[in-house]
Amino acid sequence: MSKQPLNFLCISTYFKGEDFLKSVKAEGNNVYLLTKKKLDKEPWPWESIDDTFYIEKWNHEDVVKGIAYKSRTIKFDRFVALDDFDVEKVALLREHFRMPGMGRTTAHYFRDKLAMRMKALEEGVNVPEFTDLFNNDSINDYADRVSPPWLIKPRMEASATGIKKIQCKDELRQVINDLGDERDNYLVEKFAPGDVYHVDGLNVDGKVVFARVSKYLDTPFEVAHGGGIFRSASSKIGSKEEKGLQKMNASVMKAFGMQFGASHTEFIQSKATGELFFLETSSRVGGANLAEMVEAASGVNLWGEWAKIEAANLRKKTYKLPKINNQYAGIVVSLSRFEHPDTSSFTDKEIVWRMNKAWHIGLIVVSDSSERVLELLDQYTERIGKEFHASLPAPDKSV
């Protein structure tokens, strides 16, 4: 007897998650996409999508009414947010329609940087010293107690968007003053130079079932604010840092109540002390083509497996992880001064992926040797810098 298809409503106000949509469909389910009208020309996997619902811009009440109308004839089984900026919106939708999955409280831990830090601190996870910007006395006390430099961060933005580095108390006072009535949407934390790592994982029944540790060779902050070239590479499996980060990631997922799905979590290792600190997390697959890098190293497609986890959870079936490879991969991505850069002069056999995006150049390499991956990334970064690289100023906030 064939199983009844499940109805997935996938919500994304950005173009991403194609492999999630394909995987849901390949499992024999129905896929409905809710996205912005301006994204209708993007190369979505249309053959995997049963119907698409468009909005001009996000208005919560209008979206609720639209889904309520569609629900008269379609019994949706799952709402899924494919992008970081949609996590909280979809959590609100789940609560309105009493849909299983992450509600607003848990979603906050994966979106609001202040909520993340407070919860992590409460659960004994190491975080940089921070304070909210609610109370003047608390801010003054923090600035007197914690030496600069500091970072001012928007609570709800993704990646390095909107982050400012502050060198002294007078500058801090000025920046907070300039924020005006928006200051409650920001926090300030200690800036400690160090290596930034990311752990990309899958969670099932409240446990981490797969996680791969990688290191940004240039941090997202440096790339966004210095016009640099983005690079990341798999960490040495079994190394002290890798083991420490695997353990810390499991602690964060447990503390934040992550039950099932994909996660992308960032940590920093202090250059001065070697200590590991939790920076931020999100309940989705990492951006910047990191999923392709993780797949090249491990054989695990995070988008596709996340879709299978959602379906298994709905059907009350046991999810089975695919066979894992223990290779090493690295990615290099840059803006290009050519609309369609020619990468045919990059001929190493380790190349497994080439970026196909206007005004960008990117490569992923894979090898049994971590050292070989780093060697190739260094070579490519130098070449791209000389032959292709272009840069733009960082945006103040998301658009």
Main attributes of the structure:
about 400 residues, alpha+beta, Rossmann fold, Dna Ligase, domain 1, D-amino Acid Aminotransferase, Chain A, domain 1, 3 domains, 4-stranded parallel β-sheet, globular
Structure write-up:
This is ATP-grasp domain-containing protein. Keywords: ATP-binding, Ligase, Nucleotide-binding. One of its GO terms (molecular function) is metal ion binding. Residues 117-311 form the ATP-grasp domain. InterPro entries: ATP-dep_AA_Ligase (IPR052032), ATP-grasp (IPR011761), ATP_grasp_subdomain_1 (IPR013815). The N and C termini lie far apart (48 Å). Helix 1 packs across helix 11 (302-315). This protein has 399 residues and is α+β, with helices and mostly antiparallel strands. Strands 13-12-9-10-11-14-16-15 form an eight-stranded antiparallel β-sheet, with helices on both faces. A four-stranded parallel β-sheet has the order 3-2-1-4. The chain has a four-stranded antiparallel β-sheet with strand order 5-8-6-7, sandwiched between helices. It has three domains: 8-101, 3-Layer(aba) Sandwich (Rossmann fold); 129-190, Dna Ligase, domain 1 (2-Layer Sandwich), CATH 3.30.1490; 194-388, ATP-grasp fold, B domain (D-amino Acid Aminotransferase, Chain A, domain 1), CATH 3.30.470. The longest helix has 18 residues, at 370-387. It has helices at residues 18-26, 60-70, 87-97, 104-109, 113-122, 136-145, 169-179, 220-226, 240-256, 290-298, 302-315, 370-387; strands at 7-12, 30-36, 51-55, 78-81, 130-132, 150-154, 164-166, 186-190, 194-204, 207-218, 230-234, 261-270, 276-282, 328-335, 351-354, 360-367.
